[in-house]
Amino acid sequence: MYRKVLALALLAASAMPAAAQVKMQWASSNSDTGATLTFGVPETDEAIISFTCDKGKEMVLVSSYIGSKGLKAEETARIVLTAGKVKKELPGRAIANEENGAVDVE
What we know:
The chain has one helix and seven strands. By secondary structure, the protein is mainly beta. It has one domain. A four-stranded antiparallel beta sheet has the order 1-2-3-4, with no helix packed on it. The longest helix has 14 residues, at 2-15. The protein is globular, with a radius of gyration of 18 Å.
């Protein structure tokens, strides 16, 4: 019985967000060459996705910073965006993240 109660308590505690966790937010930045929309922790380099538009170009660069497993740098990859039932897959490539050793996609 004690083990069951302990297991349930640990499960409940692990489901709660950490008190020190900072909420991620959308932020935008503009420059003379274009604009970027990023979802991450304000005032830090911690982000999970960004969208960059360069003036005069029709393409938007979508970058994922979640450290995708099973990818090697420079391999063909894809980013999958979902919102409810809507799903969009974008072609890309795996990029080595030198700061944390992960492989991201853009």
